[in-house]
Design brief:
The structure holds 2 protein chains of 2 kinds. By secondary structure, chain A is of the alpha/beta class. Chain A folds into 2 domains: 165 residues, P-loop containing nucleotide triphosphate hydrolases (Rossmann fold, 3-Layer(aba) Sandwich); 72 residues, no CATH class. Chain A contains 9 helices and 10 strands. In chain A, the strands form 2 sheets. Chain A has a 6-stranded mixed β-sheet with strand order 6-7-8-3-9-10, sandwiched between helices. In chain A, strand 4 and strand 5 form a beta hairpin. In chain A, helix 3 packs across helix 4, helix 3 runs parallel beside helix 5 and helix 4 crosses helix 5. Chain A starts with a strand and ends with a helix. In chain A, 43% of the residues are buried. By secondary structure, chain B is mostly helical. In chain B, helix 3 crosses helix 9, helix 4 runs antiparallel to helix 9 and helix 8 packs across helix 9. Chain B has a domain of 270 residues. In chain B, the strands form 3 sheets. A two-stranded antiparallel ribbon of chain B has the order 1-6. The C terminus of chain B is likely disordered. Chain B starts with 7 loop residues before the first helix and ends with a helix. The chains are: A alpha/beta, B mainly alpha. Chains A and B meet through helix 2 and helix 3 of A and helix 7, helix 8, helix 9 and helix 16 of B.
Chain lengths: 252, 397
């Protein structure tokens, strides 16, 4: 049984069948990549996992519990974190504060009224946050305002924020989009290192095949809202269906 | 914020000293009379509370005067029914405002941005209109809620004749004023002011704790990226509601204190311009900063008291040394900005501050401080760098 099981998920926007009977089984502690041409429904699928969208029909089970109808914060508290396509961070706050927030959310749950506690006095939470910043190599920048950072740094910060929650499942929406090759390779190394050192499952949406084939244990190919192939990376490259999905798109 | 230079304890100590010295400091400005000083403290509390909602979460309420009015009505009812002691009156003010804030906040916070502002404005205007119409038995309509000799006052007993009683703190009359002469100045030590000032210090201290708490950090996170916060496992609704209720209770306390200083309550306290005033105070002083709202409230109340007293005759007096025609012309222009037209001045100042000092007067003070500090350490480049970074770090606080 996989950590994330998606069965017969359909989602329609007006006349567009965005997701057409999607089935997906993500094994625990693996890196599962979802690839496919533009408009294939990859982001829609991800949105169904985190509570932003509700599928019209079908089931999404995480660790044996249904995610359908749950709010984003509830799903997150179950152990599902997400890195967005454009980094979603707290731009007005310092880098350390950015990581303190998920650290508190991990410890205190969805809501805790503690107006008289002092952030300064919470040394355990602070150490945890600084540890996370150290893991992505940003500790020395901790007092910078987040909005002043480069895009690559914002992505690394968002990664640290997600890791601070110690998620069981981390969803990555194009983690290297718009990155230079050197940054992309650094991100691949970072993700590999995380995958090796933690009990964590990744679901990665990615366009960059270099990233996909460096990381993925298993790949699902999505085209027109439907999973056309799910297989090991070495079998994907030569698969005629995959070639058709990509090249057929290009010929239109 | 000054927090970059001083520790919180130092800031609080300085704050207490300044608040205690207001009767002396305000005397040379002609602002050392009880009614105005009480306004400094009470509207300071109102603005500090408003800032906990607006400054931290970014939710702009346009109806906070409703809670101020409810606080005043509650306090006066307590004076009428129970006792002239201010303590039960203030407790009821805070509770009633808190309960109404819970209900209004619960509904209004389902929306954000402009829709939230409109909803709070609608609730406040509704309260205002209701106070004039259906609720007249409670609010006494246009006349306003006042004390009467034959009020029951269960604890004190009704008075047969004589003067109306005034609010007291266990026998200490709120209106009692001790006039002393200090450094050749006539200093008025008013019980009501020091009583309100004690609450101002308490309000400031609580706000400071909230700013530095994990709870406050979550509120700041709501302001900068509520979406991310939801995907970080945080349920933002109870956080914003808690901030709304806390700031509503601050407003209730301020309203209650207004009634303690002068035991009457009128619906005009809830009108929408009163709600707008606290927005101005907070932004003028510096939204999201600790001291800003207090400074903004004092500046506006001071300007209101001073500018609205000037008239054409006084203004003409300033220009007497000029040729007659020029003096008349200047008087004609300047007189538009004083007296009843003092809001024109306020509007101009507000425009200038928002345009050139988005962080409010506090940011202005910090810029001056940085400028002076930089000149002092011209050679020490490294220190300059850390100063700049320090400024950046605290800019968002």
């Amino acid at each position: 049984m996989g950590i994330l099981e998606v069965q017969n998920v359909n989602k329609r926007f007006g006349g567009l069948q965005a997701l057409d009977d999607v089935n997906l089984n993500v094994e625990e502690n693996t890196v599962h990549a979802i690839i496919g041409p533009n408009g294939a429904g990859k982001s829609t699928l991800l949105n169904c996992f985190v509570g932003r969208l509700t599928p019209d029909t079908g089931t999404v089970m995480f660790n044996g519990q249904s995610l359908i109808g749950r709010k984003p914060h509830e799903i997150n508290q179950m152990g599902v974190s997400r890195v967005f396509q454009t980094p979603e961070i707290f731009s007005d706050l310092t880098i350390l504060e950015n990581v303190l927030i998920p650290s508190f959310a991990k410890r205190d749950g969805a809501f805790k009224l503690s107006p008289f506690a002092a952030v300064k006095a919470e040394s355990a939470v602070r150490d945890h946050a600084e540890d996370m910043l150290g893991q992505v190599g940003m500790l020395e920048k901790r007092n910078m305002i987040a909005s002043a950072m480069s895009r690559g740094d914002k992505r690394r910060l968002e990664m640290a924020m997600c890791l601070a929650q110690d998620p069981k499942l981390l969803l990555l929406d194009e983690p290297t989009a718009g990155m230079a090759r050197a940054d992309t390779n650094a991100t691949i190394d970072l993700l590999k290192q995380i995958a090796d050192t933690r009990p964590i499952t990744f679901v990665v949406i990615e366009h960059d095949m270099h990233v996909v084939f460096s990381l993925a244990d298993r790949i699902s190919v999505l085209a027109q809202g439907h999973v056309i192939v799910e297989d090991h990376p070495q079998n994907i490259k030569g698969n005629p269906k995959v070639r058709e999905a990509y090249l057929g798109d290009a010929h239109e | 914020m000054f927090g970059s230079k001083f520790s919180d304890r130092t800031t609080l100590t300085l704050f207490i000293i300044v608040v205690a010295l207001v009767p002396l400091l305000a005397a040379p400005l002609g602002a050392g009379y009880p009614a105005l000083m009480q306004f400094f403290a009470i509207f300071g509390i109102f603005a500090i509370g408003f800032n906990i909602l607006f400054g931290l979460t970014g939710y702009l309420s346009f109806g906070h005067a409703a809670f101020l009015g409810m606080g005043s009505y509650s306090a006066v009812w307590m004076f009428k029914l129970l006792s002239m002691n201010v303590i039960p009156a203030l407790i009821l003010s805070v509770l009633i405002a808190g309960v109404f804030a819970l209900v209004i906040g619960f509904i209004s916070l389902r929306r954000s941005g402009i829709y939230f502002s409109i909803l709070t404005l609608a609730f406040a205007q509704m309260s205002y209109k209701l106070a004039y119409s259906v609720l007249t038995p409670i609010t006494n309509g246009e006349t306003g809620l006042q004390l009467a000799l034959d009020d029951p006052r269960i604890l004190d007993g009704a008075r047969e004749s004589g003067q109306l009683p005034s609010p007291t703190l266990f026998g200490l009359d709120m209106n009692a004023t001790n006039n002393i002469t200090l450094f050749g100045l006539d200093v008025q030590l008013n019980v009501g002011y020091f009583f309100s000032a004690a609450f101002l210090v308490l309000a400031f201290w609580i706000a400071m704790r909230i700013f530095r708490s994990p709870f406050g950090l979550m509120l700041k996170a709501v302001k900068t990226n509520q979406n991310r916060l939801n995907y970080t496992g945080v349920n933002t609704r109870p956080y914003t509601l808690a901030a709304f209720v806390i700031s509503g209770m601050y407003a209730g306390l301020a309203g209650g204190l207004l009634a303690c200083m002068d035991p009457l309550a009128g619906a005009e306290r809830m009108v929408w311009t009163a709600s707008g005033e606290v927005v101005l105070m907070t932004i003028l002083g510096g939204a999201g900063t600790l001291l800003g709202p207090v400074i903004g409230a004092s500046v506006i109340k001071f300007a209101e008291a001073k500018l609205s007293k000037f008239n054409e005759v006084i203004v003409h007096g300033w220009f007497d040394f000029l040729p007659e025609g020029l003096a008349n012309g200047l008087t004609w222009v300047v007189a538009k900005f004083v007296g009843d037209g003092w809001h024109l001045t306020l509007g101009l100042v507000f425009m200038l501050v928002v345009t050139f000092l988005p962080g409010g007067l506090v940011e202005g003070a910090r810029r001056i401080g940085n400028f002076l500090g930089r000149r002092g350490q011209k050679d020490d480049l490294e220190q300059l760098g850390s100063n700049v970074q320090g400024g950046k770090t605290t800019a968002a606080e």
